[in-house]
TrEMBL record:
Top-level taxon of origin: Bacteria
Gene Ontology molecular function terms on file: protein serine/threonine kinase activity
Keywords: Kinase, Transferase
Protein name per the record: Serine/threonine-protein kinase HipA
Species name: Rugamonas rubra
Transferase among keywords: yes
């Protein structure tokens, strides 16, 4: 039995355009076919300029070792979104999705980028419900989030579903939803009951520090809801006019296979430099974005963000076939930083989280050694004031003591 759906370009949410069909066969492999009418449109584009170029032929979109299907999976849920979707469907007495196509069809279409999904090209994707206003967040909702974080078997009310369901399309393990704040879509990120420190407040403080370090960040804000921190990030894959930008994660771009036992890919393709080299042919800010990613890598080393992975970097399409590196996101120190390498390769020493390793392959970022060292010095100078900066952001004294084991200028 072959299961299929139609993929839409929802750049203009009012007029979604059918792009092609995606099907999954009995072996679990995906097959994608662009529609003839779409290919002939003047503003059509490759969903993935490396792995899914426009063609009249049906293309294999093999299931990857982690169960994903490249750029299509960027628009669908995982982790938190899967848990939330399961709770919503249980509340409605509806069966859970049993295959990748059904998961995409059950999306609320608030996921990353501009792709949407429906059962047939004549049926436009349901683009979700209107996101709640920030003012509608409440202590009651946060208690529901706490319950969901540890157990998806939660009796959700209609109000809970309306407030939380837009977040089910988003990736990542942290609890979150979509809200309208100052007239634009924002991602609202919540704490969990098992957090060791106030993660939303620390993420806010770390993003403030990243901004001071010269890193490109989206607009963000910290708000208080019933005495608890909620971190708001403006969506950079949306325009002020409400349009949606096509989005490709670095994970989809690099299409990583399972790593070798010796981890050799950390020195080559599965690395920050590998992202730079993969995006270079269609990146319209090539040298600028290469330097930007080097700066982010160095910042992650100093602040102990060892959980930075390929899904935390992305390209945004500015016009058909022309991309830029997205602003930085999901930057948080991790308590295991002193004893763990980075999650992405850093240099000739693989994933070792050291400045020496970062400098070892600076040429791949189009940097001369002296230029790379200037960036390191600039980032180190910004991070050196992290305690004062975190205090100004309202991070508690006890949390700063915990984070002192993560953030270091001596790596």
């Amino acid at each position: 039995m072959v299961l299929a759906c139609t993929v839409f370009d929802c750049s203009n949410p009012v007029e979604p355009l059918p792009v092609g069909s995606f099907a999954v066969d009995e072996a679990g492999d995906g097959h994608f076919a662009y529609g003839r009418h779409y290919i002939n449109r003047p503003q059509s584009f490759d969903l993935d300029p490396i792995h899914l170029r426009r063609s009249a032929e049906v293309q294999l979109l093999a299931r990857r070792h982690d169960g994903t299907y490249g750029v299509l999976s960027d628009a669908g849920p995982n982790a938190w979104g899967v848990k939330l979707t399961a709770s919503v469907l249980t509340r409605k007495n509806e069966p859970l999705p049993s295959n990748p196509v059904e998961w995409l069809l059950n999306s609320w279409h608030y996921g990353s980028g501009c792709l949407g999904f429906s059962r047939h090209h004549t049926e436009k994707p349901g683009l979700g419900i209107d996101a709640a206003r920030t003012e509608e967040l409440s202590g009651k909702l946060l208690r529901v989030v706490d319950a969901l974080a540890v157990n998806e078997d939660v009796d959700l009310t209609d109000s809970d579903i309306r407030l939380l369901a837009p977040g089910s399309s988003l990736g990542g393990v942290r609890p979150k939803t979509i809200v309208t704040h100052d007239g634009t879509e924002h991602i609202a990120k919540f704490s969990r009951p098992d957090d060791i420190f106030d993660v939303p407040k620390v993420e806010y403080a770390t993003m403030c520090l990243a901004h001071k370090a010269g890193i490109d960040t989206p607009d963000f804000e910290l708000i208080d809801v019933a005495g608890r921190s909620v971190f708001l990030v403006e969506r950079f894959d949306r325009t002020k006019g409400g349009r949606r930008k096509h989005y490709i994660s670095a994970h989809s771009l690099l299409n990583p296979s399972a790593l070798s036992t010796d981890g050799r890919e950390y020195k080559t393709s599965f690395s920050y430099a590998g992202i730079v080299e993969a995006m270079r042919p269609f990146n319209i800010r090539g040298q600028l974005d290469s330097r930007e990613l080097f700066r982010r890598m160095v910042f992650n080393i100093f602040v102990g963000n060892v959980d930075d992975h390929l899904r935390n970097h992305a390209l945004l399409m500015e016009s058909p076939g022309r991309y830029v590196l997205s602003p930085a996101f999901d930057i948080v120190p991790h308590i295991s930083a002193s004893s763990h390498p980075q999650s992405i390769g850093v240099g000739a020493l693989g994933a070792a989280s050291t400045v020496e390793n970062a400098l070892s392959q600076c040429g791949r970022f189009l940097l001369k050694p002296e230029e790379a060292k200037e960036i390191v010095a600039s980032v180190r100078n910004a991070v050196s004031g992290w305690v004062v900066s975190f205090k100004e952001a309202g991070v508690r004294k006890n949390d700063i003591a915990v984070l002192a084991n993560c953030i270091s200028l001596d790596r």
